[in-house]
Amino acid sequence: MSIFNLGSKDIGIDLGTANILVTLKGKGIIVQEPSVVAIDRRTGEIVATGNEAKEMLGRTPEEIKAIRPLKDGVIADFTATRLMLKNLIERISKKYKIGRPRIVVGVPSGITEVEERAVEESVIHAGAREVYLIEEPMAAAIGSGLDIAEPSGNIIVDIGGGTTEVAVISLGGIVISNSIRIAGDELDEDIVNYIKREYNVAIGESAAEEIKKEIGCATSLMTEKSMKIKGRDLSTGLPKDIEITSSEVQEAMENSIKEIIDVIKATLEKTPPELASDIMEKGVILSGGGALIENIDKLVSEKIGMPVFIAEDPLECVVKGTGKTLDDLEKLKTVLINARKRK
């Protein structure tokens, strides 16, 4: 180990489509905020990030653009991502006096080489000394406490904002994985479209996300929940209040949840028999924000015929996994995408 690395404070980042989480060696999770940035179009300067920028979505004057620079788990707006990361790393560096850190970033398993380079370049430009990339399902498995090194099959399903990642892991590697761009954002869109179709009312993505969190469910609830929301009546253009129930939200999200279950089934069908029997015994682990949808574990279990468990703190699994990887970087280098390629 180089003398310059002694006492260096390394950072783990879950660069999510919906949220960005950061863990700092020795401090735990120090940032958890929406992946949103507001930029002044004239100067190119950042106006706001995180929660403050999220409040601005759909409400900004012409000279300010509030955007989510990541889509489907990858960088959609390179400049905005670079600005957001630079702002974030500068804030952390200032607060914790960390200089140029080594950074491990969680990325979707279906990421292309071009997308990989975009993430690496963004993080280097933001002030990192070294950047390592780890596939989100692998990070989620490490973060949820699975022993990834054992010669036994584990399956993790990470339902994030932009992607759902399914991976079978054994002996410190991903044996088989699938990634689909259907996850939390798609479910929000389903709710927006349902309300438009059934009530002729337009609501924003933030309102849809709130509905999903408050009353979203994957199977019928014993006691129906309901929620009042404000929207815009599409026939009059005027504000309108409507009430929506949990069974309506279930119906709105049904097809997307079915696609998520189908990709789990497809992954299991391709899993080698030896590992499949391990998985049958241990069950499936769900992580990511989508794991918090009520009864999703019950529905998945019913459809695939095996036990399903929700990881502890599912939203934090990926970022915790990046942190644990930093703690044991030499031993876990094999799980890092770009470290494998550098060999």
Task: Give an overview in words.
The chain is an alpha+beta fold. It has three domains: 3-136 and 317-342, 2-Layer Sandwich (Nucleotidyltransferase, domain 5); 140-182 and 253-312, ATPase, nucleotide binding domain (Nucleotidyltransferase, domain 5, 2-Layer Sandwich); 184-249, Actin, Chain A, domain 4, CATH 3.90.640. It has twelve helices and 18 strands. The chain has helices spanning 50-56, 78-96, 113-125, 136-143, 184-199, 205-215, 246-269, 273-282, 296-304, 317-327, 329-332, 337-342, and strands at 11-15, 19-24, 28-34, 37-40, 46-49, 64-67, 70-71, 74-75, 102-107, 130-135, 154-159, 164-170, 173-180, 201-202, 226-233, 239-245, 284-287, 308-310. α2 (78-96) crosses α3 (113-125), α4 (136-143) packs across α10 (317-327) and α5 (184-199) runs antiparallel to α7 (246-269).
In short:
The protein is α+β, with helices and mostly antiparallel strands. It is built from twelve helices and 18 strands. The chain folds into three domains: 3-136 and 317-342, ATPase, nucleotide binding domain (Nucleotidyltransferase, domain 5, 2-Layer Sandwich), CATH 3.30.420; 140-182 and 253-312, Nucleotidyltransferase, domain 5; 184-249, ATPase, substrate binding domain, subdomain 4 (Actin, Chain A, domain 4, Alpha-Beta Complex), CATH 3.90.640.10.
